[in-house]
Design a protein that fits this description.
Elements (H helix, E strand, L loop, with lengths): L1 H10 L4 E5 L2 H13 L4 E5 L5 H15 L13
Parallel strand pairs: 1-2
């Protein structure tokens, strides 16, 4: 579901920061969207760690500017 959200937002012209624990799939999706011309970055994030959020927010803002939309799609299948 997160990949679908990322693709849809990128298709609409949004700068997208993909944040996930799964490095390889996250990097692959970011690469796919960049290859299609989108402004996309990948950031490793464990949403259960407050310190990880404290680190990822400034990294996303350095990559894309202020965050204006957040899609929280954390979950377990």
């Amino acid at each position: 579901m997160g990949a679908a959200h990322s693709r849809a937002l990128a298709r609409e012209g949004a700068a997208v920061a993909i944040a996930d624990l799964a490095g390889e799939p996250g990097e692959a999706l970011a690469g796919e969207l960049r290859d299609a011309g989108s402004d996309v970055s990948y950031h490793r994030l464990d949403v259960t760690e407050a310190s990880a959020w404290a680190a990822v927010v400034p990294a996303v803002e350095r990559a894309h500017g202020p965050i204006s939309v957040l899609v929280n799609n954390a979950g377990v299948q």
